[in-house]
Amino acid sequence: MTIHHIVLTKFKPEATPEQRQSVRDSIHSLPSKIPAIQSIVAGETVSNPLGHGYDKGTIFVFESVAKLNEYLPHKAHVDHKAFATPYIEDVLIFDIESA
Question: What are the structural domains, with CATH classification, of the chain?
Answer without folding.
Answer: 2-98 (3.30.70.100)
